[in-house]
Design brief:
Layout lengths: L38 E5 L25 E5 L9 H8 L5 H9 L4 E2 L2 E2 L11 E4 L7 H8 L9 E4 L3 E6 L15 H8 L7 E2 L8 E7 L2 H12 L4 E9 L8 E3 L1 E6 L5 E6 L10 E10 L2 E8 L6 H8 L13 H9 L13 E9 L6 E5 L4 H11 L8
Family: Belongs to the pseudouridine synthase RluA family.
GO molecular function, one term: RNA binding
Function: Responsible for synthesis of pseudouridine from uracil at positions 955, 2504 and 2580 in 23S ribosomal RNA.
């Protein structure tokens, strides 16, 4: 029985003797020559309107019908970027929701094939974009000016990169119904910054360490580390129930789909599922109490919703997870009914540790983000034995 592929050839555990070879890494695409990006050609399906002698010709306005198919060749500056980020850079004035919609619908092609938003483009790749009606650049600039500037707690910063503590409830970028996120707010707060790009992502409801590159070279170097699994990522997760001490490694393939509303959903599948991707999470119990367990989860692969689905399929969903969790428990927590007097209305998943090599010096850096106050308060409450009833 074959296993679903895994994009790495390394697998380390806390100190346990788990020496599984992670196989199936994809080699970098050779692409084409390192040619500067250019527009290759256009195609138009518009027909000429019939002239009516008695009426003045209407004023032409840009529409999807009169727009043109465009093709771009990825240059060295775009090497290694996610497809969604590449298109947002190239399609000035295109709303992020539009970019994601045309990718999901299959209208964007990379080297004549369908691609997903997280596909990494390589130098020489040909990216085809369907006819689009784009906003006037002045209108787009005016919309960007309405983004409220915001700085976030800084964990590390130098001339190459910035590490912040992202709060829960804030998207990392705009799109899919979200007008703006962390990166747009940072750019507004730092108008003189020449380059600010997300190195990786966190779910909107996940808090914790988020890296932002301040130079193209830093972005490429850091994203290479994430792809090669050379980073160390540990999350704090509070789950419902008593986690079994013996369950330390979860090696379950995952399959990502889109529901009727276009929202991503991830399912645990058999190892030989044709669309499954091998996914590995390492679990360590930190604290038990009150019918809940606080876990440290280190991910060896970076699949969408990996921790959330792995813990849920093991029978212990994350507290506050509105997609894969126990909705009755979530509701009781939010209303202050589960723990009288204490309301907890977010998902308890926090990116608390991140280790990586500095993109310029090569020095190993290990960052830590303490639990947010609301999470720390909940943990303290669960660790406190209930008071004996008075007689």
């Amino acid at each position: 029985m074959r296993c679903a592929p895994l994009n790495s050839d390394k697998s380390n555990t806390y100190n346990a003797n788990v020496v599984q070879r992670i196989i199936g890494a994809k080699s970098p695409r050779s692409g084409g020559s390192r040619t500067a990006r250019k527009t290759l050609g256009t195609t138009s399906t518009a027909t000429q309107p019939t002239k009516v002698a008695a009426r003045p010709a209407p004023v032409a306005t840009p529409t999807a019908a009169t727009a043109q198919v465009r093709q771009f060749v990825v240059d060295e500056a775009g090497e290694g970027q996610r497809l969604d980020n590449y298109l947002m850079r190239e399609l000035k004035g295109a709303p992020k929701t539009l970019v994601y919609r045309i990718i999901r619908s299959g209208e964007v092609r990379v080297n004549k094939g369908r691609a997903s938003a997280d596909t990494r483009v390589a130098s020489g790749d040909v990216v085809r974009v369907p006819p689009l009606r784009l906003a006037d650049p002045a209108v787009a600039a005016e919309a960007a000016s309405r983004v409220p500037p915001r700085e976030f707690p800084i964990l590390f910063e130098d001339e190459h990169l910035l590490a912040i503590a992202k709060p829960a409830g804030v998207a990392v970028h705009g799109g899919s119904g979200v007008s703006f996120g962390v990166i747009e707010q940072l750019r507004r707060a730092r108008p003189t910054a020449k380059f600010l790009e997300l190195v990786h992502r966190l779910d909107k409801e996940t808090s914790g360490i988020l890296l932002v590159a301040k130079k193209r070279s830093a972005l490429t170097a850091l994203q290479d580390q994430f792809r090669q699994r050379d980073t160390g990522k540990t999350y704090a997760a509070l789950v419902i129930g008593d986690w079994p001490e013996s369950l330390k490694v979860i090696d379950v393939a995952l399959h990502k789909t889109l529901d009727a509303e276009g929202e991503r959903r991830v399912h645990a599948v058999a190892a030989d599922h044709p669309d499954g991707r091998r996914s590995i999470s390492l679990v360590r119990v930190v604290q038990r109490g009150g019918g809940y367990t606080l876990l440290d989860v280190t991910i060896k692969t970076g699949r969408t919703h990996q921790i959330r689905v792995h813990l849920q399929q093991a029978g212990h969903p994350i507290v506050g997870d509105d997609k894969y969790g126990d909705f009755a428990v979530n509701r009781a927590m939010a209303r202050g009914e589960a723990l009288p007097g204490l309301r907890f209305g977010r998902m308890f998943l926090h990116a608390r540790r991140l280790a990586f090599d500095h993109p310029a010096s090569g020095a190993r850096i290990e960052l830590a983000a303490p639990l947010p106050e609301e999470c720390a308060t909940l943990i303290t409450r669960l660790a406190t034995p209930p008071s004996a009833p008075t007689t």
